[in-house]
Amino acid sequence: MKNEQKKITEYLKSKDLRITPQRRLILTEIFSSHQHFEADDLFVRLYDRGAHISQATIYRTLNLLVLGGFLGEVI
């Protein structure tokens, strides 16, 4: 995760965005598992762990990761 996190941080900086605590939690949750997931499942997992992150933040972060080539989207 460290190498990916560094690449993602650099990518976000190139877009004039920062790695917020919410984004860090999302990244940690995503990269702690190597299974496919849906955005709503990710929201529930984070909520169950006590994280109060809006669905909009999750969708925006996932979109950034797809655009940056860090995640693939399955439709």
Outline the secondary-structure elements.
Blueprint: H1 2-14, H2 21-31, H3 39-48, H4 55-67
Characterization of the model:
The protein is mainly α. The chain has four helices and no strands. It is globular, with a radius of gyration of 12 Å. The model has no long low-confidence stretch (mean pLDDT 91).
Instruction: Report low-confidence residues grouped into runs of 5 or more.
Output: none
Q: What Rg do the Cα atoms give? A: 12 Å
Q: What structural class results from the helix and strand content? A: mainly alpha
Q: Give the overall average pLDDT.
A: 91
Taking the sheet with the most strands, its summary is: none
Helix content: 55-70%
Number of strands: 0
Number of DSSP helical runs? 4
Distance between the termini: 25 Å
Oligomer: single chain
Topology pattern, helix = H, strand = E: HHHH
Q: Give the overall form.
A: globular
Strand content: under 5%
List keywords for this structure.
single chain; 75 residues; mainly alpha; 4 helices
In short:
The protein is an all-alpha fold.
